[in-house]
Amino acid sequence: MAYTARQLIIESWYLSGIVSRTMETVTGEQIADGLERFNAILDVATASVDLIPFWVEYNSVFVAGQEKYSIDNLVEIESATFFIDDGFGNNVRYSMQPASRQEYFAYSRANTILSLPYQWHMERTHTGADVYFYYFPQTNWNFQLWAKFSLLNLTLGTDLTLTYQGFYIEYLKYKLANYLCELYNVAFSLTHAKRLSSYEQMIRNASPLDFTQKKISQFQVQTAPDYAQANLGKSFVPLGY
After folding, report:
1. 8 A C-beta contact, residue 54 and residue 207
2. Which terminus in the chain has less CB density within 10 A, N or C?
3. Which has the closest alpha carbon to 4: 40, 42, 37, 35?
């Protein structure tokens, strides 16, 4: 059954205690204020990505020789891979490793190499994010990101069940009620505040970042294959590498 943003806003006004469920009706002005605050909550969640519990599979195609890719609404990347057909009907997946801003933009490197990308870095922008890859892709391979994207602003008629699961709709209802209390300088119920806090903790635990992956350094003994080096060095490496 559909559950619209308007319905959530009305329920949040009642939950806040500012409007009496049994004696008052939420006015059009209050609904408009609620929608503004509702979209503000979604905007803030974009900055605090741990309150976005949804990881999304994003697929695109490299452009040969192109380093930077602008992706709308992208806010966080968990993993990045690309795929090559080995000529025998096998679609081989290659991993790429994250690099900090200092590692990616400040370390010495050759900028004209077209090869297998092994490193990526993301920079947030006002419309999403720019993702950089090195080495620059040699050809138009498919690549895949597992990522989080910003929560888009809603209209009053938006059916929330098409975008969010029930637990997240419940959280948004309590969060908006808290915002409305702040707007009207009214104390939010302690019981409701505790429930909101428990919901936020539940969301942070629902889809955390995976910190088990390890970076591959060019200056240490490696236990994982470095596909960029294999492509350039043809498997010849310095002694002790």
Report:
1. yes
2. N
3. 35
Do residues 154 and 42 make contact, with C-beta atoms less than 8 angstroms apart?
A: yes
Both structure tokens of 224: 């994982």
Query: Can you tell me the distance from the alpha carbon of 184 to that of 20, in angstroms, rounded to the nearest whole number?
Result: 15
Alpha-carbon distance 171 to 156, whole Å? 18
Contacts of 145 (CB under 8 A, 6+ apart): 57, 58, 71, 74, 77, 78, 79, 80, 131
Dist. CA 133–CA 119, nearest whole Å:
6
Q: What is the pLDDT of residues 117-172, one digit of tens each?
A: 999 999 999 999 999 999 999 999 999 999 999 998 999 999 999 989 999 999 99
SS3 state at 34: helix
| 191-195 long-range Cβ contacts below 8 angstroms, 24+ apart | 192/15
Q: Which two three-digit tokens encode residue 84?
A: 């090559």
Q: What is the DSSP letter of 159?
A: B
Listed by start position, the domains of the chain span: 5-51+153-206, 56-149
Bridge partners, residue 94, by sequence: 82
Residues in a beta bridge with 95: 81
State phi, psi for 7 to the nearest 5 degrees.
-60, -45
Q: Are 20 and 30 in contact (CB under 8 A)?
A: no
- The predicted-structure confidence for 171-203, as pLDDT tens digits, reads as follows 999 999 999 999 899 999 999 999 999 999 988
Asked if residues 70 and 49 have their Cβ atoms less than 8 Å apart, the reply is no
Contact predicate 147/77, CB 8 Å:
yes
Location of structure tokens 């040699």: 138
